[in-house]
Design brief:
27% strand; 2 domains; 8 helices; 305 residues; Rossmann fold; alpha/beta; five-stranded parallel beta sheet
Length: 305
């Protein structure tokens, strides 16, 4: 096998290579002054299975084009099969038409991946599992919540349904929170609390927590979501949990796709600790004390080895 890294998260790619015990294969990535990208494969890949690790986070468009060009370059060099490992799948939240006149961007990206010639796509915690059905090529959705559950158990110590409440910050994430609860408690005999959220579709990253269904009083509340961008949803939900008697609030979130103000605001928020993964490369200015990052390198290495 040959393992290639795009430019989006080379540190994660190196961790995966180390886990697999293989070197990262050589490729030249050139960005011209007019913003165009050129990919040049610098190794013999004929009849090889080739894997390209490239999350498509901010700037999503640039990282997607780089991924497409990797596939084309590898196929032109007669790679046997080309696999896309996309730890964070950009545009995944644009999976339905919320208003007349909107595109369904996730479907468009999937069609690109299929038509450019990828044999199989791996992602980590796709926003909506229903999107899996759009793919007509082999697809694997890797679940990273078990490693976050393990990390939180280490942080809390004793975890019981009497001392911990798992909370979904909106109705759409109930099944996600339930599965996380199964991992956290080690059984399915637990309840989930749910925050009723109202989102303003006319203004991006605007939502408000209206009510909380379930009992969090006297417990550690753990908010479960697949990604953070502005942090507004989680911060509002955290304050609502505290107002309803939670002793503290932690979060388990897979992807930190931070907006420019999110790190500062999350650090100043009522959330005690934010547990997340390294699917997206964390910039130096995005690091803050409350953030705890767990690597997904082992998960990726296990599915491709």
């Amino acid at each position: 096998m040959k393992l290639f890294s795009g430019s989006a998260n080379p540190i994660l790619s190196q961790k995966v290579a180390d886990k697999l015990g293989v070197p990262l294969s050589k490729a030249e990535i050139v960005r011209f002054e007019n913003s165009e990208i050129r990919i040049h494969i610098e190794e013999e890949v004929k009849n090889e299975d080739c894997y390209v690790i490239q999350p498509t986070a901010n700037p999503s468009d640039t990282h997607l084009m780089e991924l497409f060009f990797f596939c084309d370059a590898l196929r032109r060099q007669e790679a046997k099969k080309v696999f896309a490992i996309i730890p964070y799948f950009g545009y995944a939240r644009q999976d339905v038409q919320h208003r007349p006149g909107e595109c369904v961007s996730a479907n468009v990206i999937i069609r690109f991946l299929e038509s450019i010639g990828f044999y199989k796509v791996y992602v980590i915690n796709l926003h909506d599992e229903a999107t899996e059905g759009v793919f007509s090529i082999p697809f694997k959705n890797i679940d990273a919540f078990p490693i976050l559950a393990e990390e939180i158990r280490k942080y809390i110590g004793t975890v019981t349904t009497e001392t911990v409440a798992v909370v979904s910050p909106d109705h759409g994430g109930v099944e996600r929170a339930r599965k996380f609860g199964d991992d956290l408690f080690g059984h399915t005999e637990h309840s989930i609390s749910v925050v009723e959220k109202k989102r303003d579709l006319a203004h991006i990253h605007k939502s408000v927590a209206l009510d909380l269904y379930g009992d969090v009083k006297g417990r550690t509340a753990i908010l479960v979501d697949d990604m953070i961008t502005s942090g507004g949803t989680l911060m509002h939900a955290a304050q609502l949990c505290l107002d309803r008697g939670a002793t503290r609030v932690l979060t388990a979130v897979i992807h930190h796709d931070f907006g420019p103000k999110a790190p500062e605001q999350l650090q100043a928020s009522a959330i005690e600790k934010i547990f997340t993964t390294d699917t997206i490369a964390l910039k130096e200015e995005q690091k803050f004390e409350k953030l705890s990052e767990v690597s997904v390198a082992k998960l990726i290495s296990e599915v491709v080895s």
